[in-house]
């Protein structure tokens, strides 16, 4: 971290009001400090990688979660009526965005999608408020690699009668996810590309 920059923790009292450009830079630094690791890792996709990003170290961080909510909310497509994501990585993200929206006077329910149907009660795949059929829902994800995890969420939402209007990820590993979403006609955005995190991480270490 440069001598002139301040971390999210340093700005804990102003995190709710600091401008989004500054907030984005501070969130990038937090990713570098607590989520990005280099080594030999096996990913959920089955691929091996020389680095790993544990997004939950950021999204479950008190200031990090608030920063995520503030930065993702303006990225939602117009007309979005709810946010949703596949458990577990997306759980704190959809919650943060929903809560930030409430502070701005907007009702934006959060939906959590199970990987397997609940084994009791309603046996539902989707937890959260029941919305009218055809409601526009944006899928949120922490890290996109091949894109398959978010696609599972898309499929469950469509089966439930909702209209998925896009996918937003905190990090794009640039390993095919964006291309997959383009092929099926789903708009995709990422707050950070992995190249930006790697460049910033190297700068902070230097």
From TrEMBL:
Catalyzed reaction equations: orotidine 5'-phosphate + diphosphate = orotate + 5-phospho-alpha-D-ribose 1-diphosphate
EC numbers, comma separated: 2.4.2.10
Coiled coil feature spans: none
Residue sites binding orotate per the record: 145, 173
Amino-acid positions noted as binding 5-phospho-alpha-D-ribose 1-diphosphate in the UniProt annotation, renumbered to this chain: 114-115, 118, 120, 141-149
Annotated pathway: Pyrimidine metabolism; UMP biosynthesis via de novo pathway; UMP from orotate: step 1/2
Function according to Swiss-Prot or TrEMBL: Catalyzes the transfer of a ribosyl phosphate group from 5-phosphoribose 1-diphosphate to orotate, leading to the formation of orotidine monophosphate (OMP).
Protein name: Orotate phosphoribosyltransferase
Species assigned in the record: Stenomitos frigidus ULC18
Lineage: Bacteria, Bacillati, Cyanobacteriota, Cyanophyceae, Leptolyngbyales
């Amino acid at each position: 971290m440069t001598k002139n920059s301040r971390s999210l923790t340093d700005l804990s009292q102003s995190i709710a009001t600091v401008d989004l450009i500054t907030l984005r830079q501070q969130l990038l630094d937090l990713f570098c400090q607590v989520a990005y690791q280099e080594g030999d890792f096996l990913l959920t996709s089955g691929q091996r990688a020389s680095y790993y990003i544990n997004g939950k170290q950021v999204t479950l961080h008190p200031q990090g979660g608030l920063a995520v909510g503030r930065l993702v909310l303006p990225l939602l497509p117009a007309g979005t009526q709810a946010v949703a994501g596949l458990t577990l990585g997306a759980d704190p993200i959809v919650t943060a965005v929903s809560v930030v929206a409430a502070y701005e006077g907007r009702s934006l329910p959060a939906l959590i999608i199970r990987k397997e149907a609940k084994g009791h009660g309603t046996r539902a795949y989707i937890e959260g408020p029941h919305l009218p059929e055809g409601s526009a829902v944006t899928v949120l994800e922490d890290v996109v690699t091949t894109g398959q995890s978010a696609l599972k969420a898309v499929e469950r939402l469509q089966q439930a009668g909702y209209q998925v209007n896009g996918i937003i990820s905190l990090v794009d590993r640039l390993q095919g996810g964006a291309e997959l979403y383009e092929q099926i006609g789903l708009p995709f955005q990422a707050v950070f590309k992995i190249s930006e995190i790697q460049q910033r991480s190297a700068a902070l270490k230097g």
